[in-house]
Write a structure and sequence with these properties.
single chain; ATP Synthase, domain 1; Single alpha-helices involved in coiled-coils or other helix-helix interfaces; 2 domains; 8-stranded mixed sheet; about 30% helix; about 45% strand
């Protein structure tokens, strides 16, 4: 039997996912992380992006995460995310409006704009839209 990993994705609001997978790809702060069964223990930071999980070499299920941390130990992958949404849960129109608002804030050169916050909102909105777009390709 092929080994699998237990994947759990948790946010401050809820447990978003608890599932078994053979392959997990995460948006690490230093690049993408690929995790398969019997991976060495690991704790790493995550940036906003798309988390993918499923069978190696096959189309993966996807979710958008807003950054956080991942812990890998004993074939268990625990993601503690600031935010997380399964691709099918994402309201595309709302994510598009958030992207447009963030872009407008970044274009505004007034001193009142928190540019770092606007940039983070932009990255989160792009991750949400990318998770949906990648899921629709299948």
């Amino acid at each position: 039997m092929t080994k699998t990993l237990e994947l759990e994705v948790v946010t401050p609001a809820r447990t978003v996912l608890r599932e078994r997978a053979r392959s997990i790809i995460l948006p690490g702060t230093d690049g993408h992380l690929g995790i398969m069964a019997d991976h060495r223990p690991l704790v790493a930071g995550l940036q906003p992006g798309v988390l993918q999980y499923g069978e190696p070499g096959r189309e993966k299920a996807r979710m958008a995460i807003g950054g956080g941390f991942v812990e890998v130990a004993n074939n268990r992958v625990t993601v503690l995310a600031d935010t997380a949404e399964l691709a099918e849960e994402i309201d595309v129109e709302r994510a598009q409006r958030a992207l447009e608002r963030a872009l407008a804030r970044l274009r505004d050169m007034s001193a009142e704009i928190d540019r770092e916050r606007a940039y983070r909102a932009l990255i989160r909105a792009r991750a949400r839209l990318r998770a949906v777009a990648l899921s629709r390709r299948t």
